[in-house]
Amino acid sequence: MPEHTVLFDANNEPVHAPTGTLLSEAARLAGVELNQPCGGQGRCGRCAVQVKSGHVRARSTLRLSPEDVANGYVLACQAVIEGNVAIAVPPQEKIERVLTTDRTVGEIRVPAGYDPVKSQTIRRVNLTLTPPSIDDQTDDWARLRKVLNQKVHRSEFNVSLPLLRQIGGILRQGDWKVSAIVESPPWDCCPDCPAQLVDLKPGHVNDDQPLWGAAIDIGTTTVSLWLVNLLSGEVKAQVAEYNRQITRGEDVISRIMYASKSAEQADEMRELVVAAMNELVERACKRTQVDPADIVKAVVSGNSTMIHLFLGIPANSIRLAPFVTGVNETPIVRARETGLLIHPEASVDCLPGVASYVGADITAGVLSSGVDDSEQITLFMDVGTNGEIVLGSNEWLVTCACSAGPAFEGAGVVDGMRATKGAIEEVWVDGHDYEPTCRVIGNVKPKGLCGSGLISLLAELFLTGVVDKAGHIDLRLPTPRVREGEHGPEYVVAWGAETEHGRDIVITHVDIDNLIRAKAAIYAGFSVLAESVGIPLEMAERVLIGGSFGKYINVEKAVQIGLLPDMPWDKFQFLGNTSVLGGYRALLDRSDRVRVQDIASRMTYIELSADNRFYEAFTSALFLPHTDMAKFPSVADALT
């Protein structure tokens, strides 16, 4: 098959690719960054590039206007190379919003009664060995194991081959005095299970020298890391960064599809998230003047897809019926196996999940929020592209996941965008002249609408009568803000003269329909969980909202569109990143690590795709706020 030269203006060196190669693949080979938030399915239009010379064959022109096509624009994920080409790459959208989770959000309290000797699985011990002699020719490893047994009361020890190769030299360098770091399994019921020799250094070390650990949450949007002194239990640094996989898919399904196309793309997805994690390790260590190689233990939480992609486990079965994970409970692995740039023998413990769409982020969230230990009936939820919900108490737990789609993250909306600089994050609409007032991230000219802005806008449009219960825009209103647009009826949020790009920012009837479907899926999930245990939803005594997106939701507006149940506001509590907090708890305390395991085993998972009740509840929720206004008395009052 003939090869062709492909030259990107963002790269001085051309690459060579055979006929039929996608432009997006050629860009990857050239090291040229192209955003593909739909996972290369041709749906988002964000990988558009311009063919300056040569010829490519476009499979799809979705999201491209006739003018774009006439000017040579193609979607890189849908265009195949058929000859030598030169490609111009437009500036790629960058995430500019400062992550609030990258600031210290207040001192994290060390759990009461934390004792590193009793609670912690890892410890450092100073050892003095009897040197070998003609009369005692015990091998070095057996000699070390014998003294370790006396110190940590374990009969069996594992050691990696790289460390085993160094033991003899370390023992002699330290004149038979050494410091060992040993990790025992968290399960006290397994006294015969071997401990792991993590590190061995010549000489003795002061007892107060810290041992370092990391709690890491791999979120679909954000990766967060807490650096922890395992001796004191104190969190010394909190850092966060956007998950670099966003450029290959904004939602988990898009990422699974991208990773499933080839082994190279699966490796790329793993490398992207590992690179983000290593950047956080470096940043946290620089702040605290800690050597990354001194981090000897890591606990990782995240949804099932994120854990699979991080470990390089094929995730395609997650999106295909009957929606089964490769693994819910992964064995503890070593950092050198994952690419994490911490101590190579550090344990990397990925917390257990429950099912394809209820992962370790939720089991960790239940742990940190105390749902499993409370007598109160609690509704715990993490709203995002995939809405994960838990209902229960210390006696029972049921859980489900409902695919809300990416609308709440600004995707699939004509003028939607992520919560970056220039995104409209809140809107107020005057009920007399229908004029909007907007708050924009960064206090700059607006570029689009992010999730929180869309929720706020939809609520305001409904309350002021711009849209009706079915989400139809009233084109009869005496305002130029409502009009018939390219995609049907629309409301103009900002005129072109007010925006950064000079185009009107609108919300269309199609956008509103997508938002209503997304909120209906979440509300139907609550309803089915409550019905499955035979209790009315209003019996929930608390509503706990985890995840970073929850911090930006206006409860009043979310209730007004029917995203959240209509309950007294004092029942709602926003907890922030409960996943990383749960990981921190499991990092510190072996009993909490066992408790996460118990939480996962106690949860009864309900597969909504196979439950007719979900379809009925979903259909009923396809109105603002619901077909049954009795479920939303506060909204009924606001409309009168």
Q: What would your notes on this structure say?
A:
With 640 residues, the protein is an alpha/beta fold. The protein folds into five domains: 3-88, Beta-grasp domain (Ubiquitin-like (UB roll)); 122-202, Roll (Ubiquitin-like (UB roll)), CATH 3.10.20; 212-350, Domain of unknown function (DUF4445) (Nucleotidyltransferase, domain 5, 2-Layer Sandwich); 368-404 and 531-634, no CATH class; 407-515, no CATH class. Helices cover 28% and strands 23% of the residues. It contains 17 helices and 29 strands. A six-stranded mixed beta sheet has the order 14-13-12-15-17-16, with helices on both faces. A hairpin with a 4-residue loop joins strand 19 (386-392) and strand 20. Helix 10 (360-369) packs across helix 14, helix 12 crosses helix 16 (612-620) and helix 14 (578-588) crosses helix 15. The longest helix has 26 residues, at 263-288. 49% of the residues are buried. Residues 96-105 have low confidence and may be disordered.
